């Protein structure tokens, strides 16, 4: 049998035991009042209590009805989700009211119902603050329902006063039975509380083990991703090596062989040398075509499908949508058309700069401006991130410098107020498409 089933069984036994106790105590009180009337002890009884008591049937009815209401809300509270805290608090408040109602109907001669409310408080409260509030509520509830502390002030009638008309032996038996109910209720409550605490401890251990397993899985997944990335890089390098070998290598081999042939025929036959040079030219042009095709495969997919400005706009929109950063992009260069190598550098510089602004600078605003002056294109990327006091070139900045150097471009940056990147590219404007 699982621990949860044992806890449920214990709770059912506690419910049954307290029902028996409520029925016994309220039944004894009701029967005693009928006996007092029958034996003509009513006057003496009234002088002893100094007030008019409840009707006998009303005492037992209120005690039993309030108890069943307490059990109903106790079961209802256990079906509520932990997130429904307000509902649980209302239910606990109603449990307290019905607990007080049943105890008052029994003239505070049995306060074991407090343990039912305490059990629900223990089961429903989490955290140190909630446990402190719960402990305060328990002390207050016990204080209110303890006859020796508060019963006298509220004119409650002790059980001994109800049973004074019985013989000494019966009085002792009644007191003993009530004492047994209290003791059994306390023992069952302690056992129930122990099971709850053990269950909570085991649940915490289970959650901790799951977290450790999750961390281990994340670590393995990270290692796998890194390994997959390295494998992908290796495969890409091998592919490029094969591509260069099959295209550029083949073309250069043919050119070298053709040039050697020309050196041998130039003094013998000028016409044959010309024909050979024409063939060399065809091989070189074919090699250039093959190289361009290989390089084109390395271009960003967005540049293959879209114009440069649309590709940049789409990239920035995706960045804003995924990271929540606000990007202001202003292009002052029209028309915005360049050679393929220039397009790729422009796209990659903006991509790397904005990525660094979000990842390292934690910026929420980025301003991007592209301007044209004489033969230079200037890309300015400014963010409102944390900046950088001590400038150290990481992989991103080095990568941008390498790309720009291929076009004889420049890169300047400053991290004092956010982060500022200024990239300059000498553009072949004479070949710009109008």
Structural features, described:
A hairpin with a 2-residue loop joins strand 2 and strand 3. This protein is an alpha+beta fold and 434 residues long. The two termini are 83 Å apart. Strands 1-2-3-5-4 form a five-stranded mixed β-sheet, covered by helices on one side.
Secondary structure blueprint with pairings:
Layout: H1 3-38, H2 42-49, H3 56-78, H4 85-105, H5 113-124, H6 128-145, H7 147-151, H8 159-162, H9 168-265, H10 270-296, H11 301-305, H12 308-323, E1 326-331, H13 340-359, E2 365-373, E3 376-383, H14 395-406, E4 410-414, E5 419-426
Short description:
The chain has 14 helices and five strands.
Spell out the helices and strands N to C: HHHHHHHHHHHHEHEEHEE
What gross morphology would you assign?
rod-shaped
The main sheet comes to:
5 strands, mixed
Terminus-to-terminus distance: 83 Å
Which whole number gives the mean pLDDT? 80
Task: Give me the side-by-side strand order of the main sheet.
Answer: 1-2-3-5-4
Helix residue percentage: over 70%
Q: Which labels suit this protein?
A:
434 residues; five-stranded mixed β-sheet; 8% strand; 70% helix; alpha+beta
């Amino acid at each position: 049998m699982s621990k949860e089933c044992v806890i449920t069984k214990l709770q059912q036994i506690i419910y049954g035991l307290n029902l028996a106790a409520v029925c016994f105590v309220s039944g004894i009180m009701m029967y005693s009042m009928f006996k007092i009337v029958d034996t003509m002890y009513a006057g003496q009884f009234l002088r002893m209590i100094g007030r008019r008591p409840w009707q006998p049937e009303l005492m037992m009815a209120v005690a039993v009805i309030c108890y069943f209401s307490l059990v109903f809300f106790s079961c209802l509270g256990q079906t509520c989700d932990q997130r429904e805290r307000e509902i649980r608090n209302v239910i606990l408040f109603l449990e307290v009211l019905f607990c007080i109602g049943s105890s008052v109907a029994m003239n505070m001669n049995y306060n074991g119902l407090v343990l039912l409310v305490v059990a629900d408080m223990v089961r429903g409260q989490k955290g140190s603050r909630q446990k402190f509030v719960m402990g305060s509520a328990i002390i207050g509830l016990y204080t209110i329902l303890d006859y020796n502390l508060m019963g006298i002030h509220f004119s409650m009638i002790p059980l001994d006063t109800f049973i004074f008309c019985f013989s000494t032996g019966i009085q002792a038996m009644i007191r003993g039975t009530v004492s047994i109910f209290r003791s059994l209720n306390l023992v069952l409550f302690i056992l129930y509380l122990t099971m709850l605490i053990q269950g909570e401890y085991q649940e915490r251990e289970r959650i901790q083990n799951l977290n450790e397993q999750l961390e281990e899985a994340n670590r393995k997944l990270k290692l796998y991703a890194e390994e997959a990335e390295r494998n992908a890089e290796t495969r890409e390098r091998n592919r490029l090596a094969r591509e260069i070998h099959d295209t550029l290598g083949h073309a250069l081999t043919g050119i070298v062989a053709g040039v050697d042939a020309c050196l041998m025929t130039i003094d013998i036959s000028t016409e044959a040398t010309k024909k050979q040079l024409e063939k060399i030219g065809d091989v070189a042009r074919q090699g250039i075509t093959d190289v361009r095709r290989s390089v084109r495969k390395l271009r960003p997919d967005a540049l293959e499908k879209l114009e440069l400005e649309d590709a940049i706009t789409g990239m920035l929109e995706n960045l804003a949508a995924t990271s929540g950063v606000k990007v202001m992009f202003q292009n002052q260069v029209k028309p915005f058309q360049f050679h393929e190598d220039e397009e790729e550098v422009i796209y990659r510089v903006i991509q790397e700069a904005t990525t660094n602004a979000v990842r390292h600078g934690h910026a929420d605003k980025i301003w991007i401006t592209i301007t044209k002056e004489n033969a230079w294109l200037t890309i300015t990327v400014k963010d409102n991130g944390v900046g950088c006091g001590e400038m150290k070139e990481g992989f991103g900045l080095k990568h941008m410098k390498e790309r720009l150097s291929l076009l004889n471009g420049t890169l300047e940056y400053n991290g004092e107020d956010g982060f500022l990147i200024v990239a300059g590219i000498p553009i072949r404007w004479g070949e710009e498409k109008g």
